[in-house]
Structure formats: structure tokens, C-alpha cells
Amino acid sequence: MIEAAQFVEAARERGFDWYAGVPCSHLTPFINYVLQDESLHYVSAANEGDAVALIAGVALGARNGRRGIAMMQNSGLGNAVSPLTSLNWTFRLPQLLIVTWRGQPGVADEPQHALMGPITPAMLDTMEIPWELFPTEADAIGPALDRATAHMDSTGRPFALVMQKGSVAPYALKKTGLSGVRERAARAPVERFEGERVTRREALDRVIGLTPKDSTVVLASTGFCGRELYAADDRENQLYLVGSMGCVTPMALGLALSRPDLRVVALDGDGAALMRMGVFATLGAYGPSNLAHLLLDNGAHESTGGQATVSRGVDFAAIASACGYALALDGDDIGVIDRFLDAKDVDGVRFARLSIRTGTPGDLPRPSIAPEDVRARLQAHIAR
């Protein structure tokens, strides 16, 4: 058994100062220790996939050797499969995973872990994530972290430490609340704009015109959103998600929090937003003023044939306001984008939903640049 401080401080020496996750009783000492150190950063995620995507955003903007850790119970691996396989693996965005081993064979546990426990190692192997048991002796911590960072640096992909029960000594929580959460006295009023709906391309052209390359990063959701942005203007300050549906916003949050010098714009779709609506609460709580969340809502899963979503019955702007966004806009008029990006003195994350028309050019290309090359190009750009 080790002390939480022994691992966290050894990890800090190797650049790990960003943490995100969902609690598990095995993780309690770590979370308690990190929460009480103001020089470390911990984000309480709505689900494990959001935590992985958020740390991917930290990795995207990493400088000066900064690294991140996503923590979860092994039951949460199911929630994290999508970003681990189609975001981290595809774009080569490394992170350390600490996965608790509930239901480990031979260890009595709750019935809900009876299947996940035995298959946890196989799940990691199937996702091509190297793993080893979490260190339980002080002199094993440094070598384990060195093996993890060597893999992360050489491959650009995650490494996992699987934590058994009783690996870490208890550490009491001496504070209440969460560091970094923004306190708000009142909800932001929803501002609504009436007008004529535009196409996705017209909306993206307006975004491009208002997001200068030298100060802004634009992350586009999977599907036609990213493909149309690429077709409109393939700029070096842009990244187009492939797969990992719903992960553009937690990824943007990780980038915005770790790089306050950048303005980060997340382009979302209604289907993707519905898939991970829990992240609205996370963005509202932690979202900084350099983060902007624009939802282009056409009421359809257009890239898969145009099947309708339930977005027409959802007031996304009211949800954003209720979750703590500092600005909440909604409407059909393209002027929403101007108000959204030009608003001054907004203390916190801003949100806008623009209702757009369906329809996509028939000759819409797919990006010819590989995802990891898009990532490398963006990282080189923001490093400058």
C-alpha cells in the first residue's frame, strides 16, 4: 500500500498536473489529495468518456511537458471506449489512465462488477492500450510512471495503470466543493433571434470570418460539420473530429482550461449534443471565458441519411443557461454568430444554438489530410 502523496508527487515531477474523472471508492485518496492542492487541476466529469476527451484536449494544447490523467472505475470503460478508440488512438493524443479493478477475479465485490471485472484486462488489450498493475510499493512508483511516459511519448497513445483494492492508503477530504468551479449569482438570460435559416456552409463561412488564425482554435464535431468546415477553408487552426461523437465539447474544455492564451470555439451538432448532454453541466461549471460552444441544429443526423433527432423539442439555450453558461443565445438568424463571438465582457463560457437548414453539397469531400497530421499541424500552429 502506498500513500496518495507518493504517487501524485512522483507524477507531478513527470509533468502530470491535470486530472479528470468520475469517482470510485478505490480512487478516493487520489481525488481527495488532488482536490486539496490548488496547484493541481481536477475536473469532475459527468462520465468517463468526457474525462478522456477532456484530457485529450489537455494533450492537444500541451506545452512545457504538461500531461494529464483520466481516472475511472473499470465499469466506466464502456463510457470511454468511443474517445479512447476514435479520438485518442486516431489522433495520437496520449494520456495516463488509472482504472480501478472492481470485480477482480478472486476478490469479493458487488454483482454489477461480476462481468466487467474479469474482462477488464481483455478490454484494454483489445483497445491496444498497454497496461500494468498500479504500484503498491513506493519504490515501484517511479519506474511505473517512467514506463507509462515512455510509451506515451513514443506512440502518442494512452497507457493504463489498473488499480487493485487496497492499493492506496486513505486520505481524508478536508475541504468542500470543487476547485475551479465558477460561482454564479443568477442565470444568464436567454437571448433569442428571429430570422431566416441559413445553410451549414453559410454559418461556417461566418465562423471562419470571425475566428482569426493567430488567436483562435476551431474544433469541429464529427460528420458533415467537420467535412464542410474543411471544404470551406482548411486552416491550420482547425481540427475535424472523426468518430468520438459528442466529444468535441469536453475536448474543447480541456484545451481552453489548459491554454488560457487561446480562444477555443467548439462547433457542435444537435445529434452530438444530445448524446453527451451531461457535459453542459461540466462546461457551465468549469468553462472559462476563452471557450465558446456553438451548436448548429438542423434537427437531423444528416451524415447518416437524414434521420430526425429530437432536438426540435429541446431548448438547448435554456439548458445552457441553467447549467451556468455566462451567455446563452438561440435563434434562426445568422446574426446569432456575430453576437456570440463578438460579445464583450463575458465572464465564463458562452453558448449559442443556431437553427439551420438541412442539405449538404453532393460533392462534399472528406479531409485528405490524416487525423494525426491535422493534430500535429494544429499543435505546431499554436506552439508558434
TrEMBL record:
Residues 5-115 form the Thiamine pyrophosphate enzyme N-terminal TPP-binding domain. This is Phosphonopyruvate decarboxylase. It comes from Caballeronia humi. Keywords: Decarboxylase, Lyase, Thiamine pyrophosphate. It comes from the Bacteria. The keyword Lipoprotein does not apply. InterPro entries: Phosphono-pyrv_decarboxylase, THDP-binding, Thiamin_PyroP_enz_TPP-bd_dom, TPP-bd_CS, TPP_dependent_decarboxylase, TPP_enzyme_TPP-bd. GO terms for biological process: organic phosphonate biosynthetic process. GO terms for molecular function: magnesium ion binding; phosphonopyruvate decarboxylase activity; thiamine pyrophosphate binding. Residues 241-326 form the Thiamine pyrophosphate enzyme TPP-binding domain. NCBIfam families: Ppyr-DeCO2ase. SUPFAM superfamilies: Thiamin diphosphate-binding fold (THDP-binding) (SSF52518). The keyword Lyase applies. Pfam families: TPP_enzyme_C, TPP_enzyme_N. Signal peptide: none annotated.
